[in-house]
Design goal:
With 185 residues, this protein is mostly helical. The chain has a single domain (13-176), classed as Up-down Bundle (Hypothetical Protein Ta1238, Chain: A), CATH 1.20.1200. The chain has helices spanning 25-45, 49-73, 86-100, 116-141, 146-170; strands at 12-15, 18-21, 110-111, 175-176. The strands form two sheets. A two-stranded antiparallel ribbon has the order 1-2. Helix 3 (86-100) packs parallel to helix 5. This is Corrinoid adenosyltransferase. Pfam families: Cob_adeno_trans (PF01923).
Length: 185
């Protein structure tokens, strides 16, 4: 099988249900989800399996779930059985709570960074927020799986939490935004 098909040379791509322009909001939404997935791979290769094996395992599962989310988003108005479910959102909430227990309480906003792993996870967080915005735009125009939007919302919180966890495990403090008042109580 050849990797190139030439079917996209005219600026269109295939989705479940037909062909659409490559700059369609649907393609933008699932393409941004794909960007998140790629950056998760980047974050994983920065991790020491002796320190981060639990995070690597969870992120690998999330990579599979993001492929599911992309598939759900690629359905061009065709009502099919979706793969992203409310149970997946609940599982993310449980992971957030588990990793947050490792972190000291925060009172102010924090700056992205600290350790290299944390910085990479913050990139995943902001890309996930962008993907969520693209899905919100798509959902106003076309039918989508609402659980994908909720999943992405929770996923960005997950990345924030594990970025902080990575700093804790590296023995690096989060850097507080100094111009912020106390926003978390």
């Amino acid at each position: 099988m050849k990797i190139y098909t030439r079917t996209g040379d005219e600026g269109k791509t295939g989705v479940i249900g037909g062909r659409i322009h490559k700059d369609d909001i649907r393609v933008e939404a699932y393409g941004t989800v794909d960007e998140v997935n790629a950056f998760i791979g980047e974050a994983i290769v920065r991790m020491d399996p002796k320190v981060h094996q639990d995070i690597i395992t969870d992120l690998t599962e999330i990579q599979h779930e993001l492929f599911d989310a992309g598939g759900d988003l690629a359905q061009a108005g065709k009502k099919r059985q979706y793969k992203v479910t409310a149970e997946m959102v609940t599982r993310l909430e449980q992971l957030i709570d588990r990793y947050d227990a490792e972190c000291p309480p925060i009172q102010r906003f924090i700056l992205p960074g600290g350790s290299a792993v944390s910085a990479a996870l913050h990139v995943c967080r902001v890309l996930t927020r962008r993907a969520e915005r693209r899905v919100v735009t798509l959902s106003r125009e076309q039918e989508t799986n609402d659980e994908v939007r909720r999943y992405l919302n929770r996923l960005s919180d997950f990345f924030f939490t594990i970025a902080r966890t990575a700093n804790v495990r590296a023995g690096v403090s989060d850097v507080e935004y100094k111009r912020s008042g106390q926003v978390f109580r």
